[in-house]
């Protein structure tokens, strides 16, 4: 099934060239279906690239989705034109009285800061409080997951001795979990972060379950027992070359960084990486949309019945 997005969103042309089913607003209007309303809080600096990554992976669901974007007013984006934000994004004040079926909160390159030092922290706290009563299920990614775990449960993040960057093998920690239905015993996912969370801090919270982890990358997926909160510490949505682009960016900035692990063939950055995580990334998002959003959300979204 298609995803419904604004006709002139830059990602639309990219995805159509990839033969991904994008429905324009006029087509969607004439369908007698209530699409799932998904809103994405995009905290990444390269917003257009992140939009494309997330829309590409959301498009693999058999459900019809109406996707909109949210940004925080208390942060000035340096890498995205203001015209793009004003055309395609809403502010929290615009949507705070609405309900949505699903929310995605992306990562952000602010791990070196304490949460309270992030310039938009107070506004982000408003969103995280709002989502409890206005969102059926929320998927948090990387720093977004760490921020939500800290806000809701007081779980701290800890600095790593070096950046965790690469493609890592993961296992399912809790069997018969709907979110991981259909997953192989061993599967891969990208990580790109400077901080980590500790198992003992998660295990002391009875509301949370560790669903997947990696010997090298640590905890990967945490879920609340009611399915309304999902926390993913990696970046399953990343494109094939995203880690390469991050590595080149860091080198140009003079940041001491190691090659992404298990990524370039023979650890040779001149060779093309091999895609090994796309299928499970698609399955993760499809399962979240189906089991935690579609199966749980009310048909009349804004009804109090």
From TrEMBL:
Residues the record marks as site: Important for substrate specificity: 192
EC number of this enzyme: 2.3.1.31
One function term, GO molecular function aspect: homoserine O-acetyltransferase activity
Alphabetic keyword roster: Acyltransferase, Amino-acid biosynthesis, Cytoplasm, Methionine biosynthesis, Transferase
GO cellular component terms, semicolon-separated: cytoplasm
Amino-acid positions noted as binding substrate in the UniProt annotation, renumbered to this chain: 163, 192, 249
UniProt-annotated site: Important for acyl-CoA specificity, residues: 111
Keyword Amino-acid biosynthesis: yes
List of catalytic residues: 142 (acyl-thioester intermediate), 235 (proton acceptor), 237
Keyword Secreted among record annotations: no
Biological processes annotated in GO: L-methionine biosynthetic process from homoserine via O-succinyl-L-homoserine and cystathionine
Annotated catalysed reactions: L-homoserine + acetyl-CoA = O-acetyl-L-homoserine + CoA
Primary site of residence: cytoplasm
SUPFAM superfamilies hit by this protein: Class I glutamine amidotransferase-like
Pathway(s) per entry: Amino-acid biosynthesis; L-methionine biosynthesis via de novo pathway; O-acetyl-L-homoserine from L-homoserine: step 1/1
Database matches in InterPro entries: Class_I_gatase-like, HST_MetA, MetA_family
Function: Transfers an acetyl group from acetyl-CoA to L-homoserine, forming acetyl-L-homoserine.
Stated family: Belongs to the MetA family.
Protein name (database record): Homoserine O-acetyltransferase
Organism: Shimazuella alba
Gene responsible for this protein: metA
């Amino acid at each position: 099934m298609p995803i419904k997005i604004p006709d002139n969103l830059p990602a639309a042309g990219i995805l159509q060239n990839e033969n991904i089913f994008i429905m324009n607003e006029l087509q969607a209007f004439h369908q007698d279906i209530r699409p799932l309303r998904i809103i994405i809080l995009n905290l990444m600096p390269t917003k257009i690239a992140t939009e494309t990554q997330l829309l590409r992976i959301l498009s693999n669901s058999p459900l019809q989705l109406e996707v909109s974007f949210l940004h925080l007013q208390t942060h000035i984006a340096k890498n995205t034109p203001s015209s793009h934000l004003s055309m395609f994004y809403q502010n929290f004040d615009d949507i705070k009285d609405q309900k949505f079926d699903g929310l995605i909160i992306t990562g952000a390159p602010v791990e070196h800061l304490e949460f309270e030092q992030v310039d938009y922290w107070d506004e982000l706290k408003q969103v995280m409080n709002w989502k409890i009563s206005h969102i059926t299920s929320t998927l948090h990614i990387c720093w977004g997951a760490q921020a939500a775990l800290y806000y809701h449960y007081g779980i701290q993040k800890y600095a790593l001795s070096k950046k965790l960057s690469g493609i890592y093998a993961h296992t399912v920690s809790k069997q018969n979990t709907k979110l991981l239905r259909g997953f192989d015993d061993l599967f891969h996912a990208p990580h790109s972060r400077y901080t980590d969370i500790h198992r003992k801090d998660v295990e002391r919270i009875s509301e949370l379950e560790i669903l997947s982890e990696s010997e090298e990358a640590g905890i990967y997926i945490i879920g609340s027992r009611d399915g309304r909160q999902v926390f993913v510490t990696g970046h399953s949505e990343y494109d094939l070359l995203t880690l390469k682009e991050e590595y080149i960016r860091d080198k140009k900035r003079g940041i001491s960084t190691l090659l992404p692990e298990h990524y370039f063939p023979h650890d040779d950055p001149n060779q093309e990486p091999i895609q090994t995580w796309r299928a499970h990334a698609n399955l993760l998002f499809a399962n979240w949309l189906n089991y935690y959003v579609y199966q749980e959300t009310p048909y009349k979204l804004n009804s109090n019945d």
